Structure prediction request, 1046 residues.
Amino acid sequence: MTRMKTLACSVCLVLVGVAPVAADNNAPKSLRMRAKKAPGSHWTPMRWAQRIAQAQPSDQPPAGDPQPPADANQPAPTEPAQPAEQPPPQQAQPAAQAEAAPNLSDEELAKLAEQEAKTEVITVTGSLIGRKEVDSPSPVSVVDKEKLDSAGITNVGDILQKIPAQGNAINAQNNNGGDGSTRINLRSLGTARTLVLLNGRRVVPSGTGADASVDFGTIPLAMIERVEVLKDGASAIYGSDAIAGVVNVITRTNMNGTEASIYTSTSQRRDGTNYDLSFVTGHSSNRGNITFSGGYQKQEAVMAGERDFAKQTYSYDFTCTPERAALPGDNPDSCSFRTLNGSPASATGRINTMVGTTKIVVPGCTSRYCTADGSGGFRNFIAPTDTSLGDNYNFQPLNYLVTPSNRVNLFSNGHYDITKNSHVFFEGQFNARKSTQQLAEEPVDLSGAKAPISKNSIYNETIGQDILDYRRRLVEFGPRTFNQDINTTRLVVGLNGTADEDVPLVKNWKWEGSYNYGRSDATQAGHGMLIRSHLKAALGPSFRDPALGPQCGVPGAVIANCVPLSLLRPGEVTPAMIKYLTFTGTQSGFSDQHTALVTASGKLVDLPNHGDISLAIGGDYRFEKGGQQPDPLTATGDTTGNANAPTIGSYNAFEGFAELSVVPLSGGDALKWVEINAAGRAYRYNTFGSGVTGKISGLVRTAGGLALRGTYGNAFRAPNVGELFSGQADTFPVVKDPCDTMPPGSTTTQTLDPKVQAQCTKQGVPMNSAFASVQQRALVGGNPGLQPEKGTVLTTGVVYEPLRGLDFTLDYWHVKIDEAITNLPFATILSQCYTGGQDKFCQDVIRDPVTFHIDHIVDIIQNVGSLTTSGLDFSAAYQYRNNMGTFRHAFEGTYLFQYNVDTGLVSPDTGKEQILHGRGFYDLGLNPTLKFNLFTTWAHPSGLGAGFNIRFVNGSQECDQNDCNTPPDDGRPNHGRLDIASYATGDLFVNYGLKTSQGLTRITVGVNNVVDVAPPIIYNGPALNADESAYDFMGRQVYLRLSQLF
Prediction:
């Protein structure tokens, strides 16, 4: 509560003396979250003069107000390439001059009318047709340069991941399973279902090879003018992947001068320091421009042990009832709701004395689990409690909380006028990234590695029996590290222009042809894993040779170069043992993309009532190829790390598309704008065949400031290279073996459900088997037989602008995806086999023929079921000026109605179709009911400015084994559910811009997460007690940015 009060007070400080005055009709038009226009593209001179002549003073532009500092850092306008086609820059006129406008001569009014006709046409993301109006039938949000400059970020993906429409996606906080990239996941539909464009063109996926989505770290922040986020399906406009929406990054062009910037930030704990050095320079002539930028960014690491919420993992006993919790602590049936957690693969080791039906006797130990006592013998393994970790190992201090990386980027664009109406253009980009993830030492599991400690090992003399299930943290081997070295290159060249006015039917049409090439090359090196075959040999039979010392094998059959391994007694591991067992795993990978695109668009015919019909047509060819090549040990699975078979594959696609826009009415007394659009695309892929997709949309804007808009379209997504051709790879999901009658933590044998027992017996599992594992090995991989996903996307909404500068939006959206490309949940496979008795799923559960524990689960990606989500997007924005300066308020949020996954299967428990509900539950990741952002800025004519941002994420619920969809009625508190707390953070900044003879100097000082809010605890989340893709792990962070425009 204290933190929330502090946050509220911080907000109040920024708002002191700020009282929006509804009658301030001289306020400029709202800069709400939608596509920007070029200066002068709305309040054109002709429209200005007409409104003044019609005695509408409320629509007059500001009278001589100074420009806010937020605009002062823009480069001076360059000489336009086509001066005859560009309107003159608008100048703010004193009120007295503005009143004289009605006295303009007919000749002057004619010139204004000509300028009105030549107003720059803007193409908004979501349409191929340029228009002078910025209102779009599709909902579009914009993150502009002002917000990018004031935020404490060096990667545009960091700010995009905080918009309400964003789901959960990988970022620098993903350590276990991360690769140093930052990706976007609109509507929580998956990163592969959000299309990313750079200046309206595709961007090559970047990562470790055969990637499916774009790493936003490859796009230099200094070159970004704005980011347009289309929150609507757009497959008919842009093709595959645009199901959840489109993120279009628009870069700066026509730069004339140089801007240099220095940025640094650090947490209040003096870690996680971030650096950014960048520059942008450009030169213009009367026939063209070239702009070039370069930069270097460095992110230092934050260790998990340095944050209270992450320095130790916790577990929550969802099966614990108040009655059990009240029992004495030494009773085996007692429990604690929350306990300290860690890895049972401890530094002193843990022996499981019962595997399946096989039991061993460990001297000095009377429990099921035993460990070394430090004096050469053994004792009972101590389980963790709510106050003690026991013998479990705390792996958190060695894990990264924020992963380190550094990036070097180069970017250039330019254009040259060949003739008055034709131009050549290019974009060039290079990004080099080095990133690292670090995990605690290898937790070797001999049952999973199929490397038992032989009863004939010289280091197993005390027990003298084969030890099948032994786990130990190899602290002598050091932490595991994974290093990526990724280079991304992109080049676009093309021609564009305008058809001559005397060309029939297509006069003044815009046309463009371009070739887009992108490639990402990656190498990855992993350290700290073991060679499985060497481990098996080192733990197998061994003997002592009087002359040569310890030898692997038996006399007469020595295993060459093998060094026997001593695991049971800590402190006996030697450098020679480590050298024999460890290796450096390497992997190379790439993603290749070629796109040829031609488009043409323009007005077909004028209609009565100032309407028109416009058309855009085009076609493209795209070739994608990707691959991964692991080292031989990883490829064959001869490692204690994750096995990963090679990947190689490609596909190509030919597509043709068209968009028709009909404006039957414009500028009427009651209806100011009526627009109907239709778009279609035909495609042919060599991997699955042909198809078509379409979309219709409409917009009606009234004179009273009210606009109604809506869209409906088909969506499709072609399977990508990884989904089609990925080699089989290991993963280790947390899921219990249904045949385990003595799960971890239990000391008594449990009776299985008869249906489950029947399937276990059918698979050869002996009665009363115990396996003591909550993690199972699974094999995942590509499927060349995949078909495209298909679905529908609906949006409908209202925009209301009661005053100039004030607007509200409300949009309903509904997305359904059929034949979703995905893996089945591992728990679903086990449930369908053991509870449902379906043999086709049992065939995917492979058991060890000796111990009968689950060796692996086969879960190849496939088209299965559907995914449906819907909700409301809402926003409010107000910009106004008074004697204290210019104020801008923006509020944007999303309310989730549903997030449902239909597995396409029948639930074995209910006999009904199995539908998983993700809204408000953690079963399918974090999908809260409500998220919103509030952003406010103030800019004084003196150059001083300030602002704040508040981000809110509503709470959710988590359940035992993520089973909120099937809450049992067994007396557990809240049916085994636990609330995940709501989350709110606030950011503050102050900036100052000073004009000197050298140019504009701007300094920004800010604090992110000003109240130092820690993320809410999620026990089912990753190993950090929280969700790294949803919350801030850094804590309070102070930043400074200094820029100079010459």
Residues 2-15 form the longest helix (14 residues). Residues 719-787+825-858 form one domain. The mean pLDDT is 85. The first strand starts at residue 140 and ends at 144.
